[in-house]
């Protein structure tokens, strides 16, 4: 597999068991160059297990995983050269300052200088002179982010990256991700909330109880995005008389008023059905993506939001 | 912060300094007491009157409080010195991998392009440096503080004894390193070497007196360390060889054990 054109992340039947507990089952996942992949699922679904397998911290029980064509277990050192990793709950060295962290990891990565690390810290509004133990949770998260990003890796593996970050910093973080992908870099980031990844992700995958239950392009999801419709007619109507398309949900008839939710693709059908009757009032509001998402995957995925 | 070894030593700097000062003070105390001990025939009688088994545990080959070598051996080399150096080595060896793992800093460290073998060996190297430092400080204290209380020892033999002492500590320190690297469990990798050290100490001490222990005595690292009486006879090549090979074997096990397992989340 050619590392320059092939997928950045590729797993095949990747499975991890802890004793009898199957934490991850037969995962087939691909992340392409320049792509931001949002990895969604409730806590305990297997997101962190996936990431730690990709980082060579865990050995696959069966199946395989590769990053840029390199096996994540056998060639972990070569993989790490190209990857920046943010653990789910990053733990830093309490007594070392931000500068010392940067210096240590920079040496281990054979990076000649720390200009970019300093620039990152400045953009994230992080003071590098203080020891890690005196930093707030948000600032520790920022320092861990600086350490993950500072080598300009081709792939970023970020486990719940925005936890503890205030909205201003989150915006800066999203800008950093866009710059990273603009240069051809890829991102695999996890969250348990869709709202958090919908701004940055190109595709999302939904993980539930160790299984990848859905992978969807965000634009496709937007195409499916639910619209809340309300129509008031001149006289009471029956739902069946409207001949609404099949993928319309939550149809409620209350006297002369009908409400329903419809994906974008069904709007035309709804309008044509409704317009056969005398309409007095009509309203259409697009739902939050989160709601669309839950409507499609909510029951299967448990509480995603 | 240039590599794992230097960073590990940097982390230990305060502890190491405290140990160095303690050892220097301990030696100073022995030196200060020496003039009042050496003229006392009753001390020799007291030692002679002790049960043989008890004496064997801390007196090494000769129990002779009237010569500088015998005095230092009984007071420092037979018990307290090994205890301090072993304590440091076991603590350093066990926390090398298992300590970072239990504090959960290992994930970020290993996400760097460094092999697990390199991490465990560089951490082991830091332990070696620390042990050698403590042994060197003890040797220096004996050689420079000793003459102040007329406690004169041949420099070559002091160095030889400290080399053996350092190797003794490294045997159990590298056992702790191997256990920590293979299991990730800090408590286990501290407890097992500590118990093993006590067992080895007892086997060596009682070997000459208890017939069924005698064949085991030569396998005790304490025998490689003190069986030949380094303060009087200098280095034992075979003792050094056995200890070095043991340390290397444990280092190999540490690498092999660390490379094949999952890192605890």
* Number of helices, counting only DSSP H or I runs of 4 residues or more of chain A: 10
Biggest sheet character of chain A: 6 strands, mixed
Structural class category of chain A: alpha/beta
Q: How large a portion of the residues of chain A is in β-strands, by DSSP E?
A: 25-35%
Helical stretch tally of chain B: 12
List keywords for this structure.
heterodimer; A: alpha/beta; five-stranded antiparallel β-sheet; 10 helices; elongated; B: about 260 residues; mainly alpha; 12 helices; about 0% strand
Explain how this protein is built.
The complex is a heterodimer of chains A (305) and B (265). Chain A is an alpha/beta fold and 305 residues long. Chain A is 31% helix and 29% strand. Chain A is built from 10 helices and 15 strands. In chain A, strands 7-8-9-4-10-11 form a 6-stranded mixed beta sheet, with helices on both faces. In chain A, strands 1, 2, 3, 5 and 6 form a 5-stranded antiparallel beta sheet that branches. Chain A has a 4-stranded antiparallel beta sheet with strand order 13-14-12-15. The two termini of chain A are 37 Å apart. Chain B has helices at 4-38, 41-49, 52-59, 68-102, 106-110, 116-145, 155-183, 186-206, 214-217, 221-226, 230-233, 237-259. The relative contact order of chain B is 0.14. The longest helix of chain B is centred in the N-terminal third of the chain and has 35 residues, at 4-38. Chain B has one domain (4-260). The chains are: A alpha/beta (305), B mainly alpha (265).
């Amino acid at each position: 597999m050619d590392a320059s054109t092939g997928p950045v992340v590729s797993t095949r039947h990747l499975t991890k068991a802890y004793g009898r507990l199957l934490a991850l089952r037969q995962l087939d996942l691909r992340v392409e160059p320049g792509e931001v992949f949002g990895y969604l699922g409730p806590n305990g679904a297997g997101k962190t297990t996936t990431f730690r397998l990709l980082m060579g911290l865990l050995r696959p029980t069966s199946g395989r995983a590769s990053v840029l064509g390199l096996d994540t277990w056998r060639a972990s050192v070569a993989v790490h050269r190209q990857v920046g990793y943010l653990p789910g709950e990053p733990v830093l060295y309490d007594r070392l300052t931000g500068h010392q962290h940067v210096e240590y990891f920079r040496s281990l990565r054979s990076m000649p200088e720390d200009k970019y690390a300093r620039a990152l810290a400045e953009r994230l509004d992080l003071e590098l002179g203080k020891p890690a133990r005196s930093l707030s949770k948000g600032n520790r998260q920022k320092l861990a982010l600086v350490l993950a990003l500072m080598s300009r890796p081709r792939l970023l593996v970020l486990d719940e990256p925005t936890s503890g970050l205030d909205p201003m910093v989150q915006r800066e973080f999203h800008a950093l991700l866009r710059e990273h992908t603009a240069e051809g870099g890829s991102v695999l980031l996890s969250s348990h909330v869709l709202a958090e990844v919908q701004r940055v992700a190109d595709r999302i995958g939904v993980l539930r109880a160790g299984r990848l239950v859905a992978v969807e392009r965000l634009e496709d999801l937007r195409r499916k995005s639910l619209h809340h419709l309300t129509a008031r007619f001149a006289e009471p109507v029956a739902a069946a008389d409207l001949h609404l398309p099949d993928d319309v949900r939550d149809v409620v008839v209350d006297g002369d008023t009908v409400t329903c939710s419809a994906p974008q693709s069904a709007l035309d059908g709804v309008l044509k059905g409704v317009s056969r009757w005398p309409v007095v009032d009509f309203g259409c509001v697009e739902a939050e993506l989160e709601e669309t998402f839950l409507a499609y995957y909510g029951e299967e995925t448990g509480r995603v939001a | 912060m240039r590599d794992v070894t230097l960073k590990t030593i940097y982390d230990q700097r305060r502890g190491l300094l405290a140990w160095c000062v303690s050892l220097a003070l301990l030696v100073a105390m022995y030196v200060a007491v020496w003039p009042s001990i050496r003229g006392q025939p009753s001390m020799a009688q007291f030692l002679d009157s002790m049960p043989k088994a008890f004496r064997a545990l801390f007196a090494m080959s000769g129990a002779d409080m009237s010569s500088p070598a015998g005095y230092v051996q009984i007071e420092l080399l037979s018990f307290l010195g090994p205890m301090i150096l072993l304590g440091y080595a076991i603590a350093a060896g066990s926390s090398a991998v298992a300590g970072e793992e239990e504090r959960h800093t290992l994930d970020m460290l290993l996400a760097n392009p460094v092999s697990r073998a390199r991490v465990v060996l560089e951490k082991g190297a830091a332990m070696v440096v620390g042990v050698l430092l403590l042994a060197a400080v003890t040797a220096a204290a004996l050689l420079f503080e000793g003459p102040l209380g007329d406690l004169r020892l041949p420099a070559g033999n002091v160095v030889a004894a400290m080399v053996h002492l350092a190797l003794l500590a490294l045997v159990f320190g590298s056992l702790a390193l191997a256990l920590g690297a293979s299991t990730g469990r800090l408590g286990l990798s501290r407890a097992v070497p500590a118990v093993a050290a006590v067992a080895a100490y007892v086997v060596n001490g009682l070997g000459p007196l208890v017939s069924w222990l005698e064949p085991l005595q030569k396998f005790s690292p304490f025998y490689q360390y003190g069986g030949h009486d380094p303060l009087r006879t200098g280095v034992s090549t075979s003792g050094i060889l056995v200890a070095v090979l043991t340390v290397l074997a444990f280092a190999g096990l540490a690498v092999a054990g660390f490379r094949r397992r999952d890192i605890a989340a």
